[in-house]
């Protein structure tokens, strides 16, 4: 459907069905997943090859896209394609168990690892920003962020509230691209959640996609709805049109202390991402253009009020955390000395999961048939019947998550379980219970694959936040273990200069050969995450390594 001799924007959708265009399912899978990343139902700006996250691209140019497709269609089963920042640069003879594609995106030597230099090189046509799963061809749409947020709220529930948020009030702000997953994810845990956003259109969008249940301009009305839901221990999300720097202090004045308070306004960018109190969106846009410094002074003053209210709620007993938007730092720099009493969400809630090898594991039905994913949903429930949080996620995801592009599912599985599940998927393919092979991959945001001191590796116990060796070892190990494609990127999530990270994708085609590779990859890939955290001194990781027989020489005697 995409064969075109002129290289330029066009509509791209992955082929469906059980007939290959390529010479092997691994090449076919890479082809379909590249195209799926650019599907108009998946990508944010497909004409520019932008998949998500600012300028995260699937290929450097349409010429490069065409050359990748052409090459994948003709490559033999013992060859490996090399992709350098979204451009196919060479094909080498390797062997059948080697990856079919190796990808390096956006990597720069440390001294040159800044946005200015990156943009200069990008303009010169020499590099591309790959984000995490854009340039590595395993983005599956907004299901990923919903699931990640579900896990975070699930960890909050487990740690503080006996495993559920039923009857609890959660207060947050920012219902944008990522933050818009909060209402659905929290309500899935039974919470009554108030999501404040200054922009009514952002809330409307969440209502349309059923990520948010109700919308109002009145705080009193919102609190009445939420109070009723809390009393009935019923999950409910309410989007309130308002400014967080006004609404949260008002809650404090009224003596209302939520059980949980967090925030996902775009406070990492005080000029574009955070609207000051007392201004309409239109007035904000004018001031932003006419007096940027004045704008930042006003938005910063608002963040101070906002964080002060969060801190007061925390002092009154709320569980507060920073959700990766840097709001603590803005407030701290503006004089709120105790802003960092609000912990970051990774060290607090995600790291304990990483220590067990848990992370965002995902799979995609290459057939394009939703029935195939329905069968795999059943498989998760059959294999892990005792994991109540996982069951809840699968049941609600089936009902609430609309597929974008090829049908896909995501859940967090840990060391041992990922390999078990992958082998069971391969068996499903072998028995013909699904109509085509299944692709298994993950986000680069995972236990052993990322070095990112502002996010995934913030405040490591041994101070190893900026050590990037582990991400490189992860990529090398996935090549050695026989993944179908392996990628190594720079700058995903938190921007150029701030992160280095690796990804792997592997195809379950039902053969014994892939069975052996799946067993190795899905054991070793999370395994290095357990090893990384054990090395940093985390007890849970040390115990997980012992239980799962991961050999750690420095802990042997
Ligand atoms: P976005 O820009 O799409 O959405 C931000 C929203 O905040 C907008 O809807 C905007 O109207 C609203 N907003 C701005 N000022 C406000 C105010 N004063 N009161 C109420 N609402 C206000 O951004 P996004 O993609 O949703 O991401 C939000 C933030 O969360 C970013 O800083 C992002 O980096 C961070 N984030 C971090 C992680 C992580 O660390 N894993 C994950 C997701 C998002």
TrEMBL record:
Q: Where is the active site?
A: 411
Enumerate the spans annotated as Urocanase Rossmann-like domain.
Answer: 141-349
Which cellular component appears as one GO term in the record?
A: cytoplasm
PROSITE patterns membership:
UROCANASE
* Family annotation (InterPro entries): Urocanase, Urocanase-like, Urocanase_C, Urocanase_central_sf, Urocanase_CS, Urocanase_N, Urocanase_Rossmann-like, Urocanase_sf
Query: Which keywords does this chain's UniProt record carry?
Result: Cytoplasm, Histidine metabolism, Lyase, NAD
Q: Where is the Urocanase C-terminal domain?
A: 352-546
An example of a GO molecular function for this protein is: urocanate hydratase activity
Q: Which reaction does it catalyse?
A: 4-imidazolone-5-propanoate = trans-urocanate + H2O
What general EC class does the enzyme of this chain belong to?
lyase
Needs which cofactor? Answer: NAD(+)
**Pathway assigned to this chain's UniProt record:** Amino-acid degradation; L-histidine degradation into L-glutamate; N-formimidoyl-L-glutamate from L-histidine: step 2/3
Listed EC numbers: 4.2.1.49
> Which family does the UniProt entry place this protein in?
Belongs to the urocanase family.
Q: What does this protein do?
A: Catalyzes the conversion of urocanate to 4-imidazolone-5-propionate.
Protein name per Swiss-Prot or TrEMBL? Urocanate hydratase
Annotated organism of origin: Gemmatimonas groenlandica
Phylogenetic lineage: Bacteria, Pseudomonadati, Gemmatimonadota, Gemmatimonadia, Gemmatimonadales
